[in-house]
Amino acid sequence: MENTPRLVLASESARRADLLREAGFAFEVLPARVDESPLPGEKPAEMTLRLASAKARAALTIAATFAPNSYILGADTAVILEGVSFGKPSSPADAARMLRALSGKAHIVLTGVCVIRIPGLTERTTVESTSVTFAQLSDDEIDAYVSSGEPFDKAGGYAIQGRASRFVTRIEGCYSNVVGLPISLVWALLRDLGWPESMT
Length: 200
Fold this sequence. Notes:
This protein is an alpha/beta fold. It contains 6 helices and 7 strands. It has helices spanning 14-22, 44-62, 92-102, 139-148, 175-179, 183-192; strands at 6-9, 28-29, 70-81, 84-86, 106-118, 122-134, 168-172. Strands 1, 2, 3, 4, 5, 6 and 7 form a 7-stranded mixed sheet that branches. It starts with 5 loop residues before the first strand and ends in an 8-residue tail after the last helix.
């Protein structure tokens, strides 16, 4: 149908794609790469919102045209411990450093989400926050997890849906947010922008 809404994911994250797919969404992937470096003095929540919007808007510049009734979805996730933002580890040593810091403590996972509707370029942005507590990790556990290769390309150096699930003793808030995309929040933003409630 001509007015069938079209969802475009401005991310190459397999985890975000899996979450959308499992929630019943049909979508297209249009990876948008942006500089994810924080700005001087920028707070973590502000950074995730800025980058989510930047990714969605970058997708607009990649495609020559978008069909009417399109929704562009951008997201950015950060792990925050005691006010310090942990991005994706740059090396095995960096992944081990992050895991040692998270060991035995509670941290916050923030995901900024941006949805832009076409036509009109109407934009909605917001951020989801979830608290995650890790058990105390031994050096052997950290070394084994880093050796598995799972920490890489993941904010904070871990995947809660994977082997790192054994480390998590408590979670307060949205689980899918920790995986990389708060689905209930995405659904609320889509509906707010006019996505039919009868459609996924």
